[in-house]
Model the fold of this input.
Amino acid sequence: MNWSQKTKCPGLISSLKEPQAVVLGQTVEAPGQSGNDAGFDIRAYEKTGKSSSGKVWMIQVKREKEIGPRRVEQIISGIDSAHPPYGYLLAAPVKFSETSGSVFRIGLLEKGVEEFHLWSRQILEDKLYLPENKHILSRFFDVQTSHPDIFRD
Done:
């Protein structure tokens, strides 16, 4: 992921809203701005009551053609088991296999991560085309959203 893409990620991730899913607070950071991202692209704090400095989420966005089980294992290997985040989100425009999903789930549970989400290409597309997210298409992807058939009901 290049610098331009990384600077867009915090806004994009915090803009994707869905009931009963990841709800992030006001504090969203891109720690890898100086090069090394320590194994994740975005650090976010889940809003707890009036404070937005609650549970820590690590978000890793990959732009790869495929991600198999070994690659998933490599991606999550940097999580510190002694100080795991509360939540972890891996988003990539790929189709994850069932085995990759199992490696992701089991690996994060073993590291002590309590909540996690694996966003595949289909999940990302579904989220982007929700009517409440149409501003994301125009802001981040320069897609004109005025056509009435562009959004699913």
In short: The CA atoms of residues 69 and 102 lie 8 Å apart. Confidence is low (pLDDT under 50) at residues 1-8, 17-23.
